Amino acid sequence: MDITFIDQKLYEIKEKISSGRRLGYEDGLALYNSPDLIGVGYLADRVRREQHGQAAYYVYNQHINYTNVCINRCRFCAFARDKAENGAYTYSLDEVRERLMARIDEPIRELHIVGGLNPALPFEYYLDLLGIVREIRPQATIKAFTAVEIDYLSQISGLSLEKTIATLKDAGLGMIPGGGAEVMNDRIWAELFPRKINSERWLEVMEHLHRAGLTANATMLYGHIETIEERVRHLIRLRELQDRTGGFSAFIPLAFHSRNTTLSHLPPTTGTDDLKNVAVARLMLDNFDHIKAYWVMIGEKLAQVALSFGADDLDGTIVEEKITHMAGASSPKGLTRERMEHLIRSAGFTPVERDSFYNPVRPDGEREAALG
Ligand code: V47
């Protein structure tokens, strides 16, 4: 028996997907505006299962936010501080070392390292930071510095973008996280983050990173002042770059948290919208392999449900998430591997622990024992 849609428009979209035709701008709007959440989820789940079957991925990772001092001061950000402000911090390289050593007994395979644009830090700091991580965690992938940071590093180093990227790569940079894109739109940029690079530059930096052989993720921050039209255009711009380079690995919809920001009057995102963003991304981003349900932002329970709405990845174990928690997230700051696997299994999927490039990692003794 096939599904009966409540929303008639979904039949046409289903037909397009079945015949391998690409969804367009109007389809994106129709999906977002559809009253048929289950219908949209069903379409996304079909595509997701064709690509990944029962597998649901996660990575054993550690976050390091090396500084919250930032000259950009985006209006949606609760993490950033001015240098003399209460709560401002910058890790010395010894502190970075200590944080890595504090978890040295754990099988961490990815270090996710991002921070503010802090004028007190010279380019050498970033190279030394990569050097320390490489020394202490030679097997792990260093996923570090958003396109925003990479652009900034090119400015402070005085090097061309190409040379900056090559230097960081030589120092150990292995992959690029997807932050900093927000919603690629001039109106939103002018209103919420005018000091940050704009969408053209974000895409340009990403293109250079891809051409230098660095895989990257992409994000969209939703649930603030953006319209549905602006979301769909954002997805299409990402898809166009991906057509040219193939350099993106995962897309991560990021649910806005407003506490301690200048937008604190805005309500939290709804469960329906969180699931729609996952499902629409799966359907519109037909050239992205992976869609992440970021449990930190939408909570463990909804992230589990999102696995049936198009997501194939729950990101990672993390432990010390700061950016969303400073903006009021109520999710835990980290998950154990056992908890992650329990969430995935009880959602009806098979947990696959992965490295940064979605290669399944050999289960260690502990996991083999857990699997029986
Ligand atoms: O760029 C900032 C967003 C991003 C808030 O690539 C906020 O694997 C919600 O990009 N409420 C950083 N979001 C996080 C990020 C990320 C996370 C997990 C995995 C990956 C990956 C990337 O968080 C920022 C910004 O878009 N953000 N403030 C806030 N108040």
Automatic annotation (TrEMBL):
> What InterPro entries does the database record attribute to this sequence?
Aldolase_TIM, CofH/MnqC-like_C, Elp3/MiaA/NifB-like_rSAM, F420, FO_synthase_su2, MqnE, rSAM, rSAM_sf
Reported cofactor(s)? [4Fe-4S] cluster
Which GO BP terms apply? Answer: menaquinone biosynthetic process
Entries under Gene3D superfamilies matching the protein: Aldolase class I
Q: Which residues form the Radical SAM core domain?
A: 56-289
Top-level class of the enzyme under EC nomenclature: transferase
CDD domains under this entry?
A: Radical_SAM
Q: Where does [4Fe-4S] cluster bind?
A: C70, C74, C77
Pathway entry: Quinol/quinone metabolism; menaquinone biosynthesis
Q: How the cofactor binds, per note?
A: Binds 1 [4Fe-4S] cluster. The cluster is coordinated with 3 cysteines and an exchangeable S-adenosyl-L-methionine.
The entry's S-adenosyl-L-methionine-binding residues are F76, E182
What EC number(s) does its UniProt record assign? 2.5.1.120
Indicate yes or no for the key word Transcription regulation: no
- Alphabetized UniProt keyword annotations: 4Fe-4S, Iron, Iron-sulfur, Menaquinone biosynthesis, Metal-binding, S-adenosyl-L-methionine, Transferase
Any one Pfam family match given in the protein's UniProt record, by short name:
Radical_SAM
- Purpose: Radical SAM enzyme that catalyzes the addition of the adenosyl radical to the double bond of 3-[(1-carboxyvinyl)oxy]benzoate, leading to aminodeoxyfutalosine (AFL), a key intermediate in the formation of menaquinone (MK, vitamin K2) from chorismate.
Q: Which PANTHER family match?
A: AMINODEOXYFUTALOSINE SYNTHASE (PTHR43076:SF7), FO SYNTHASE (COFH) (PTHR43076)
Family classification: Belongs to the radical SAM superfamily. MqnE family.
Q: What name does this protein carry? A: Aminodeoxyfutalosine synthase
The record lists the organism as Desulfonema ishimotonii
- In the UniProt record, what gene is named as encoding this protein? mqnE
